[in-house]
From TrEMBL, chain A:
Keywords: Acetylation, Cytoplasm, Golgi apparatus, Lipid-binding, Membrane, Phosphoprotein, Protein transport, Transport. SMART domains: PX (SM00312). Belongs to the sorting nexin family. It comes from Elysia marginata. Residues 26-150 form the PX domain. One of its GO terms (cellular component) is Golgi membrane. SUPFAM superfamilies: PX domain. The keyword S-adenosyl-L-methionine does not apply. This is Sorting nexin-3. Required for retention of late Golgi membrane proteins. Component of the retrieval machinery that functions by direct interaction with the cytosolic tails of certain TGN membrane proteins during the sorting/budding process at the prevacuolar compartment. Binds phosphatidylinositol 3-phosphate (PtdIns(P3)). Its main location: cytoplasm. GO terms for biological process: endocytic recycling; late endosome to Golgi transport; protein transport; regulation of protein metabolic process.
TrEMBL record, chain B:
Keywords: Protein transport, Transport. InterPro entries: Arrestin-like_C, Ig_E-set, Vps26-related. This is Vacuolar protein sorting-associated protein 26B-like. It comes from the Eukaryota. SUPFAM superfamilies: E set domains. GO terms for biological process: intracellular protein transport. It comes from Elysia marginata. Belongs to the VPS26 family. Residues 309-352 are annotated as: Disordered.
Length: 161, 352
């Protein structure tokens, strides 16, 4: 009933060797690693290194490394919820219970907890940074590539040239 | 039906003419069951006999008239009380009187117009049927017999391909092409997806056929979407310059012809939905309407010949169901229809 010509492929441009074998244009890797706890006793906090490698033109730096703590991730999440149109993925838990006194263990600074949190933060930031509608938010770029987050910044979109 | 009173006093049976030569077609009933009814086309005469058998031999059946109607109607499920009859013909078979013995009454609705195709959907149903009524004092005896109507279209003279470049600025640019804009029910969709820019991490790509049934008008419009087919066309991450072929055989799916604004009551339209899924399960899609039509096939021509020339070779050889050797019931090859809702979808906008 259907002749060979009726179902034959539509012809298309042949892919150049350069396109076929070049590194893909979607390279984006973010690692959250190296947890360090700073300060003493009640004034302690943990931060992590957020290292990004990419070839996406929207990011100014193709490689960057900054240190961020949990509250910085919360800040980013809130900015994105307010300004971008994306459904922002959840962060790993805030762990209020671990901040209470009289625990048998080290609370927020337990190795296992820090490792779980690290994994959750890594998942979060990769998910968010890969979202086309989050990629032109100033807050994301500042979070990933500025050494210090300026909380008094003017929110907005990155203008692509 | 006479459920009250004294129960059925007579058995009524409608026997259509030419059954041995006539094809049947399957159609779903409201509760999802599949039924086979005789298949008619627009302009064909609907004729036959009404056989009435008295339950008790020797008894009498007093009546106020026996009539037969040919009805084409649209039933909206949310508005049960109102059946919209777009075709209604009636023939009086017997004047008021008495039936004293079994009878076989001949009827003919000559060259009846059947403008629309029979359709059973999620919220609406279009059906054609014969209804015999024996009018009685307390309660009528009613018997209905459905038929199925198919509407045939000529192969379109103009059937341009669909070719478009779409994308999300700086993230994903693709050019998609489908070989036609109008496909018949057993057609093949041949196409390709060409990647111009890929800055997202694509996991796979699929092509879906979506059926949209629209009922109601204005503010009361209701759309029911059903994913009739889901077909993965690519697994893995493409790069710039790659072409992904599409070849989708429609005969494997449960489709109907496109129905536009039928009697101003409902529409059934079909869309091709191209969906790309990235590694974070984000979905990027582009919907494109296609027209589906029912093509006249060769079998019908033979059937027409049989009617006019009484060619004995086209009659069945006795035994079994007595149906014609050309009977072609549409088999149930449906796949699971998935009515999914997707969150966080990015529609890929058309790019200039």
């Amino acid at each position: 009933m259907t002749t060979p010509t009726a179902t034959a492929r539509i012809s298309s441009k042949k892919q150049t060797l350069e396109d076929a074998y070049s590194p893909p244009a979607n390279f984006l890797e973010i690692d959250v690693s190296d947890p360090q706890t700073h300060g003493v006793a009640k004034k302690r906090y943990t931060d992590y290194e957020v290292r990004m490698k990419t070839n996406l033109p929207v990011f100014k730096l193709k490689e960057s490394g900054v240190r961020r703590r949990y509250s910085d991730f919360e800040w980013l999440r809130n900015e994105l919820e307010r300004d971008s149109k994306i459904v922002v993925p959840p962060l790993p838990g805030k762990a209020f219970k671990r901040q209470l006194p009289f625990r048998g263990d080290d609370g927020l600074f337990e190795d296992e907890f820090i490792e779980d949190r690290r994994k959750g933060l890594e998942q979060f930031v990769n998910k968010v940074a890969g979202h086309p509608l989050a990629q032109n938010e100033k807050c994301l770029h500042m979070f990933l590539q500025e050494p210090v987050i300026d909380k008094n910044y003017v929110p907005g979109k990155i203008r692509t040239t | 039906m006479s459920f009250f009173g004294f129960g059925q006093s007579a058995d009524v049976n409608i026997v259509l003419d030419g059954q041995e030569n006539r094809r049947t077609a399957e159609i779903k009933t409201e509760d999802g069951k599949r039924e086979k009814y005789y298949l008619y086309f627009d302009g064909e005469t609907v004729s036959g006999n009404v056989n009435i058998a008295l339950k008790k031999k020797g008894s009498k059946l007093e009546h106020q008239g026996i009539k037969i109607e040919f009805i084409g109607q649209i039933e909206l499920y949310y508005d049960r009380g109102n059946h919209h009859e777009f075709t209604s013909l009636v023939k009086e078979l017997v004047r008021p009187g008495e039936l004293t013995h079994d009878v076989s009454l001949n009827f003919e609705f000559s060259q009846v117009e059947k403008p629309y195709e029979s359709y059973t959907g999620a919220n609406v149903r279009l059906r054609y049927f014969l209804r015999v009524t024996i009018v009685k004092r307390l309660s009528d005896v009613v018997k209905e017999q459905d038929i199925v109507v198919h509407t045939l279209s000529q192969y379109p003279e103009l059937n341009s391909s669909i070719k478009m470049e779409v994308g999300i600025e700086d993230c994903l640019h693709i050019e998609f092409e489908y070989n036609k804009s109008k496909y018949h029910l057993k057609d093949v969709i041949v196409g390709k997806i060409y990647f111009l820019l890929v800055r997202i991490k694509i996991k796979h790509m699929e092509l879906q056929v979506i059926k949209r049934e629209t009922t109601g008008t204005g503010p009361n419009t209701f759309n029911e979407n059903e994913t009739i087919a889901k077909y993965e066309i690519m697994d893995g991450a493409p790069v710039r310059g790659e072409s992904i072929p599409i070849r989708l055989f429609l005969s494997g799916y449960e489709l109907t012809p496109t129905m536009k604004d039928i009697n101003k009551k409902f529409s059934v339209r079909y869309y091709l939905n191209l969906v790309l899924v990235d590694e974070e399960e984000r979905r990027y899609f582009k919907q494109q309407e296609i027209t589906i039509f029912r093509r006249a096939d060769k079998v019908r021509k033979n059937y027409q010949a049989a009617l006019s020339h009484h060619n004995p070779s086209l009659l069945s050889d006795g035994g079994g169901s007595g149906k014609s050797q050309y009977q072609n019931t549409e088999e149930d090859k449906s796949k699971e229809a998935d009515g999914e809702t997707v969150n966080n979808d990015e529609g890929i906008k058309g790019m200039i």
